[in-house]
Amino acid sequence: MEKIQMVDLHRQYARIKPEIDHAIEKVLTSTAFIQGPDVQEFAQALAGYLDVRAVIPCANGTDALQIAMMALGFRPGDEIILPVHTYVATAEVIALLGLTPVFAEVRADSFTLDPARLEEKITPRTVAIVPVHLYGQCADMEPLLHIAQKHNLHIIEDAAQALGADYTFSDKSVKKAGTMGTIGTTSFFPSKNLGCYGDGGALFTHDESLAARIKMIANHGQQVKYHHDLVGVNSRLDTLQAAILRVKLQYLDDYARRRNDAAVFYDRVLARVPQVTIPWRAPYSTHVYHQYTLQIGEGKRDALKQHLEQQGIPTMIYYPVPLHLQKAYRQADAGPGTFAITEKLSQTVLSLPIHTEMEASQLEYIGDAITRFF
Ligand SMILES: *Cc1c(COP(=O)(O)O)cnc(C)c1O
Catalytic residues per the record (predicted)? Predict the structure, then answer.
């Protein structure tokens, strides 16, 4: 049995090495390291995959969120609603731009924004909602879109963990994660479902004039070189990463299938363990299992984590400290107890190894180790 890792990038690369090496070599020979042809070609291929009018690549997923908020012209003091159970990047860019992050509670089953508890967070200063499609499954977008429309708010979808996931609306129409709001964002960090070999990110939109604005902001606010119409940033996807992503995009659905196969195995074994809650499968979304996240009851989470570590099984806690209890993001009116579900999740969630190269023997070993612990 291979050594168990949270993500096995080495064996994933080995399987597509000739194609990747060829793509890299082509860039090295051309020396078009910045804005080479692969960047546009990848953007077009991803736009086709997502069925969205424009994909604008940038340097990472955090920049993508920041550029989205800059492009929508939010002003200091404007309020942005985001889930309190998420990665820090979302709150960080809001704070950096002088906007006000407003935390909202998630649902314990879906781990994503609870539409039923969102409207109470809306004030006259609210300008946007940022749903995060956490762990690989879409947030419940239909009610969120209704609320946004009713209050004239933008939706910026953080699809960094769910690229490729499908959301099904009540009229049976289907859309990809990141293509339902005003702007969608993603990250190509190596461990993400579509990961490059360094940093990368992108924004998606159906609105062509907004796409033009995003493109300008990502490139120093210029359309014509040395003519700066907007205050921008320098945020590019480099050509080597784009060339790698062009190859890997072809495998994205296969990668999701492989992750689903591992999840189905875990589900089958762990559904029999009463102290363990397996991930909920939302009726409205497919799951691409960026993470396979259990909830462990009875205060046993940390002991189980340690037990698995001793058996050579790595696990991770996403996320151990909720945003409203982080030193940098504390708010006067939101002490411990304010977000009971998120606070409980921070004590109970445990993500198991899941990636595109899981072996049956590894899955069996992990399943056995968990079953034997209880
Ligand atoms: C990874 C991630 C980001 C940030 O992406 P980077 O490319 O690391 O900047 C943002 N939001 C979520 C939910 C993420 O998982």
Answer: 192 (proton acceptor)
Q: Model confidence over 311-367: pLDDT tens digits?
A: 999 999 999 999 999 999 998 889 999 999 999 999 999 999 999 999 999 999 999
The tally of CA atoms less than 13 A away on the side-chain side of residue 368 is 8
**Quick check: is 2 in a domain?**
no
For strand 79-83 and strand 100-104, is the pairing parallel, antiparallel, or unpaired?
parallel
Quote the tokens at residue 58.
């940038």
Q: Is residue 275 within 8 Å of 296, Cβ to Cβ? A: yes
DSSP string computed for 38-63: HHHHHHHHHHHHHT-SEEEEES-HHH
Check whether residue 157 and residue 256 sit in a common domain: no
Annotation marks residue 192 as catalytic: yes
- Test site for ligand 1: of 62, 106, 185, most ligand atoms within 8 A of the Cβ: 62
H-assigned helices in the chain: 9-15, 17-30, 37-50, 61-71, 89-96, 141-150, 208-218, 239-249, 252-270, 301-310, 340-348, 360-373
Distances (CA, A) of 355 to 125, 147, 257, 368: 41, 35, 10, 19
* pLDDT given for residue 298 in this prediction: 83
Residue 219 domain boundaries = 9-249
Same domain, 18 and 127: yes
Q: Which of 232, 249, 266 is the last residue of a domain?
A: 249
Residue 165 Cα to ligand 1 midpoint, Å, equals 16
What pLDDT score was predicted for residue 332? 82
Q: Ligand 1 atom closest to Cα of 189?
A: 7
List C-alpha distances in Å: 151 to 127, 128, 144, 170, 337.
9, 10, 11, 21, 28
Q: Are 60 and 201 in contact (CB under 8 A)?
A: yes
State how many domains the chain has. Answer: 2
Domain holding 320: CATH number?
A: 3.90.1150.10
Spell out which residues line ligand 1, taking CB within 6 angstroms. Answer: 60-62, 86-87, 89-90, 132, 158, 160-161, 187, 189, 199, 201
Q: Specify the CATH number for the domain of residue 226.
A: 3.40.640.10
* 233 part of a folded domain: yes
Q: Catalytic one among 176, 192, 215, 248? A: 192
Q: Which atom of ligand 1 is nearest to the CA of 200?
A: 7
**187 C-alpha vs ligand 1 centroid, how far in Å?**
6
Of 184, 214, 249, which residue constitutes the final position of a domain?
Answer: 249
